[in-house]
Amino acid sequence: MKFSTKLFGFIKKDTAGAIGICIFIFFVIVALFAPLISPYDPGAMHFDETGALMRIHPPSFQHLFGTTWMGRDVFSQVVMGTRIALFVGILSAVCVVFIGTNIGLIAGYYGGRIDNIIMRIVDIIYGIPFLPFALILVAVMGPGISNIIIAIILITWRNTARVIRAQVLTIKQRAYVEAARISGASNFRIMYKHIAPNVIPLSLVYIALSMGTGIMTEASLSFLGYGAPEVPSWGKILFECYNSQAMFIAWWWMIPPGIAITLLVLSGFLVGRSYEEVANPRLRER
Amino acid sequence: MSRDNILLKIDDLKLYYHTTAGYVRAVDGVSLNVAVGERLGLVGESGCGKTTLMKAILRLLPANCRQMGGEMYYKGKAISSLSEKEIKKMRWQEISMIPQSAMNALDPVYRIGAQIKEAMKTHQKGISSKEIQERAANIFELVGINPKRLRDYPHQFSGGMKQRAAIAMALVLDPNLIIADEPTTALDVIVQAQILERINALQQRYSGSLIMITHDISVIAQTCEKVAVMYAGKIMEYGKVRDVLNNPLHPYTLGLKNAFPSLLGEKKSLISIPGSPPDLIKPQPGCLFAPRCPFAIAVCQTEDPPAKEEDGRIVACHRLAEMEGLKVLAEDETIWERKVHAGD
Amino acid sequence: MKSLSKYIAKRLLQMVITLFVLSTLIFLLFRLVPGDPVSMYLDAGMSAEAKEMLMKQFGLDKPLWEQYVIFISNLLKGEFGISFQYGKQALAVIGDSFWNTLILMAVSLFIAFTIGIVGGAILAWKRGTRLELAGIIGVLTIRCAPVFWLGMILLSFFAFRYQLLPLGGMNTPGTNFETVYAKYFNLDFLKHLILPAITAGLSAAATPLLVMRTSMLEVIKEDFIELTKAKGLSDREILFKHALRNALLPVVTVFAVQAGLAIGGVVLVETVFRWPGMGRGIVLAVAARDYPVAQAAFFLIGAMTIMFNLIADILYAFLDPRVSLD
Q: Could you tell me the domains of chain C?
């Protein structure tokens, strides 16, 4: 009860957070009803009355965002692309934060040697160039959603782990944790029963923030030509737009997917940031 | 006291903070004079408006603090009428300050020497760097720090040394008035004593005026000639230190004196004044101290006590005439407690 | 100063360790490839002798741990194998593109931090105004926009529509340069540099800007700022000499993280603007399955990231006297 009021308390007082939530809900609705909203099959090629391929036609009532070089409907592609963006964003964020939170808990709770080793690893991972790493991993293991998500997880757990660890270090000092230890509770129990509930708000912040990273990474890899082959994604639309060299003429092809990515990433950032103020007012992103 | 002798004159000054909840009357009708070379102590609990008052002299108040009435005159000139340029010239050159907490008052990324020299460079254009260095070294010796340590950064100094460096900085331009804002509160007792001793010793050499702000009445006793007791934005009592401390004429001063160990060595138990300062946004009618005053009577609740002056002594209390008798009652610590219970 | 060199030495050691881990990662990463690991080094088009030689050089017929030892010792010699595409040493293929990326990266980080520091300070100073709101919205939008999309927009605007700047590349094709300096120090190069550097710079400016703003807001509340004011300093001196200088410290910390992220941005920006750097090189090498070149490029990009981290650490130590250097 206290938790949920805390969770949604910020909406009332924080406009930015509320805007973020609205954008996110909008995209969720679009994703859920994507097949109903999109007027055509995103892969279908369209022809005009004369039977000619409708190459880069500007927006019209038939094609709200116009058509691509291959005569495909941009609007349908963008709408269907919402699904993959949300899927990658949410799944990778949940995995990243789950792993990062647990590692942070372990490092912060046990401290000493274990903490030292984990934090050294975190430091090293901060030194690995993320996108080139993801690019090579996906190229070597083969393009596909799961490999993209794996690449994201392998690198970005460090952010959550570091912040959660810092939080655990302070919670560990509190009297009730000490009390639990004296009363003979096991390490596992103290960690998950007594400490974890206090870091979960912060984990939620990082789910919101990591969602943006996931979406951006997927879009970037798709733009570089390593997106999942069968599914339409925003990054892939931009990849095709760029490669067709039609982007200079067909702004309607280039602008909508970019705006979609920007808005969805922005929503995660806004929600994360304003909730962060509720969860931990003294915290700043490194 | 002749008129020209007055360095700083504060006349019915009102400083209100503008907040969403309304105006906070931080300083509400304060009148004070500081003569040339005079050392005035300003004592009161935290939040009584003494820091606001002092910042106002240098025009350092935040934008939401407004002068709602009255005026301050420095050497006969109204401070609020000075231009930006004039006030900048006046700062440090004429009036300097020793900050509340020297811990945070020195810029951590510059050497202390550079920060002291900065004041000279700002105000005394054309002075040679050799002379600047000499004067900085002199002033450091004066406050008892090895001049070699001018090259240190603030984090390399102990708390007491930082405070001494801050004193050195305040003295470096030989101003006419120094405002010391709780210069010892952040320090431990032994260092506090050292700093006060240092301030006393410096007074032999420094001829300017001093305003010492503190909540510790014993600090005033050691350093000042005059004292003003401030409560809730108003002056409760003003006079010579000796008179006010030996013979307080306001219940608040009585209570304040009880709250600190006696300097004269009498062993008495300490009594602090129960209760807390009043709401300054919607002050109650009458005397603002009445809710905490054990001697408050009906008139105290309704009428603001006028400030009565006699032999340079100012007291704002309705029961001034009966004070001799009340003082005896105030010795009894339970009377202060009883008041609170009655209030419950 | 003695402690500073000790500090740098310690950081360098850490850098070597990170590089070592990075190379191990490269070794493992490229052996994840499904099927025959030999294909990582051997191209179908190679002659039998060349294949034989490479098999020997990288010990591809030996067990994994021996391959690892050989891999590391080759790496120390700067050998990543022979490029499948060009038949040259991988490092030779990368060649100049290292410097091309370094220049682009340095210029765009410079742009990012100039915008960040100045913009953050202004937004903090103009707190509560419409300018602040507009600034924050603008900066957040750019931060959340994909950098390659930003590049595409700038490209179609400034290069295509108004034809102010070249469409891509690093030099106008067909120009020959006699010296290395001639290649970089000319107006044509600068013109080619502007758009990619601004794209990457804008995209990376948001984080330092927001951090600078917060930091500035905290610093101007500090006691020492008030004392500086009491000392009679002008607003400009207070802002630039004291507030800015102190507010910079957290921004420098951001620099280290930002450098790691910016290199990802640079990969995308190089691709959009066809900038002949390592980022584009790695994309092309991976696409052509030229693994030796991809490995070498990845290693060098990692080294560059770590180097920028080192610079940030040293800068911090210089700016903040409180940092204990041991």
A: 2-94 (no CATH), 97-275 (1.10.3720.10)
Q: Which amino acid is at B158?
A: S
pLDDT digits (tens, 9 = 90+) for C186-239: 778 888 899 999 999 999 999 899 999 989 988 888 888 889 989 989 888 888
In a domain, B45, yes or no: yes
The count of domains in chain B is 1
Looking at the structure of chain A, the number of domains it has is 1
List B228's β-bridge partners, or say none. B42, B238
A30 domain residue, yes or no: no
Residue B103 lies in a domain: no
Residue of B nearest to C238 (CA): B107
Length of chain A counted residue by residue: 286
Closest CA to C83 of C62, C97, C104, C100: C97
Exposure string (b/e) for C181-211, b if CB count within 10 Å is 16 or more?
Answer: eebbeeeebeebbbbbbbbbbbbbbbbbbbb
Chain B contact for C226, CB < 8 A? yes
The verdict on a CB contact (< 8 Å) between C231 and B100 is no
Residue A261 within any structural domain of the chain: yes
Check if C298 contacts A (Cβ < 8 Å).
yes
Which C residues, 233 through 262, put their C-beta within 8 Å of a C-beta on chain B? 233-234, 237, 242, 245-246, 249
Residues of chain A in contact with residue C268, where contact means CB-CB under 8 angstroms, are 131, 220, 223-224
Low-confidence ranges of chain C (pLDDT < 50): 1, 325-326
CATH code of residue B16: 3.40.50.300
Average pLDDT over residues A140-168: 89
Compute the distance between CA of residue C46 and CA of residue C83 in angstroms, rounded to an integer. Answer: 11
Residue C65: Cβ within 10 Å count: 8
> Are residues C294 and C279 in contact, defined by beta-carbon separation less than 8 angstroms?
no
C167: which 2 tokens?
Answer: 């469409």
pLDDT at A283 over 50: no
Nearest Cα to Cα of residue B154 among B193, B115, B183: B115
Residue A5 in any domain: the answer is no
> Is B177:B7 a contact under the CB 8 Å cutoff?
yes
Q: What would you report as the CA-atom Rg of chain C, rounded to the nearest whole angstrom?
A: 24
Task: State how far the Cα of B125 lies from the Cα of B122, in Å rounded to an integer.
Answer: 7
Single out the residue of B314, B319, B269 nearest to residue B293, CA to CA.
B319
In a domain, B146, yes or no: no
Decide if B29 is inside a domain. Answer: yes
- Per-residue pLDDT tens for A23-33? 999 999 998 98
Determine whether the interchain pair C22/A128 forms a contact, defined as Cβ–Cβ distance below 8 Å.
yes
The burial class, CB within 10 Å (0-12 / 13-18 / 19+), for C66 is: exposed
ipTM of this complex prediction, to 2 decimal places = 0.87
Chain segment A204-247, per-residue pLDDT in tens: 888 988 999 999 999 999 999 888 877 789 998 889 888 887 77
- Report pLDDT for B338: 58
Give me C143's structure tokens: 């931060």
Residue A146 is assigned to a structural domain of this protein: yes
What is the rounded CA–CA span in Å between residue C121 and residue B62? 19
Of C286, C301, C306, the CB nearest to A139: C286
Q: Which of B155, B308, A56, B253 is nearest to C224 (CA)?
A: B155
Query: What is the token pair recorded at A238?
Result: 């931009």
Which residues face B27 on adjacent strands?
A: B15
Residues 297-326 of C with CB under 8 A from B: 319-322
Q: Examine the pLDDT at B342 and tell me if it is beyond 50.
A: no
**Rounded CA separation A186/A113 (Å):** 20
CB B238 within 8 A of CB B38: no
Q: Which domain holds residue B330?
A: 3-94+175-336
Q: Report yes or no: C259 and C312 within 8 Å, Cβ to Cβ.
A: yes
Q: A208 is in which domain, residue-wise?
A: 67-285
Closest by CA to B34, choosing from B226, B282, B222, is: B226
Per-residue model confidence (pLDDT) at position A58:
81
